[in-house]
Amino acid sequence: xxxxxxxxxxxxxxxxxxxxxxxxxxxxxxxxxxxxxxxxxxxxxxxxxxxxxxxxxxxxxxxxxxxxxxxxxxxxxxxxxxxxxxxxxxxxxxxxxxxxxxxxxxxxxxxxxxxxxxxxxxxxxxxxxxxxxxxxxxxxxxxxxxxxxxxxxxxxxxxxxxxxxxxxxxxxxxxxxxxxxxxxxxxxxxxxxxxxxxxxxxxxxxxxxxxxxxxxxxxxxxxxxxxxxxxxxxxxxxxxxxxxxxxxxxxxxxxxxxxxxxxxxxxxxxxxxxxxxxxxxxxxxxxxxxxxxxxxxxxxxxxxxxxxxxxxxxxxxxxxxxxxxxxxxxxxxxxxxxxxxxxxxxxxxxxxxxxxxxxxxxxxxxxxxxxxxxxxxxxxxxxxxxxxxxxxxxxxxxxxxxxxxxxxxxxxxxxxxxxxxxxxxxxxx
Length: 429
Known about the structure:
Blueprint: E1 13-16, H1 22-34, E2 39-41, H2 50-62, E3 65-70, H3 72-75, H4 78-89, E4 94-98, H5 102-106, H6 111-118, E5 123-124, H7 131-154, H8 159-162, H9 183-202, E6 205-207, H10 208-226, H11 229-242, E7 251-253, H12 254-260, H13 268-286, H14 293-298, H15 300-303, H16 306-315, H17 321-334, H18 340-349, H19 355-367, H20 374-383, H21 387-400, H22 402-428
Parallel strand pairs: 1-2, 1-3, 3-4, 4-5
Antiparallel strand pairs: 6-7
């Protein structure tokens, strides 16, 4: 892909902004360059077409740090939202620079973007009197994060750093919301944790219906101040999936909760925040309307980690069939092997009502050489009503290979030839 992105390994900072704030962006960009940093920013304009959007996505993946200029305009920009999400799943240090009061910007942020940015330290350029002083803070922050990135790369990204999709600035001990006006929500969260502790002292299992009821009863009034009812339901959906409720017959066992909280129920809300941001960011990046979806898929090998693979696996159960398809294709590109959980979820896609999802599932399983999928793929190859799905299943079986797949291919081929021969004979009589 031709691009005007600087040599990838030398790119320090990528700047995301709204074109309404272009003057401030240029001043900030020049200041960073004067201080020896390699900076990339879109100054041509997003209307330049899909190829340029791909270049923007490439710059985010290759930069050592991501700086987002926040204003009411950028806060409501789909492009800025997508770019922030890609920076998050790429595990980039994120530096929010606010041109207006934080409270004013937060008031127009949609829930997922607010969730992502709320716990990060913002640098304010809202006060003209302190503008130059704050610029120095930005330089210090960028240099600190770049230093951290260089050390991480030198150490070959330790396993621990890859375990979760957690941006460096999100402290494990921070709560879901941090501003003074949200203390009531923090207290409600603590009440819910106390409910869980009290219940598990007497029982080992909470029915999901009771868990859901208490979640709304205790947290609902405060959640309503922060997000819509749809987002409350989305948050519960994240919990339903992460607590593996379906696998436990619609129950939340004590063992599941302890696994979710690393054996410390007190950090329940911190882990809710972590999983919610991760789910939001992955969905934002990989949905069909995303401006960064293609560069994200093309660069999966660079952002590949257990956390990214797990998050893509979660998207296999998304309500949107397009997202399920993209997630399957992405996992296929990664060539994940010997991961039974991901394999099982992809096999489940072969029962999907959407034919593109079934087709994507077949191809992903083929790339993964998933032996456990052979019987299901054979059934799909022989019986699916859609020819493209049958062809994808056949292609997958050929890629997987092995005795079982080859035997099934041979038997089906022989039977098909015999049926055709018999049909031809009957037609000639």
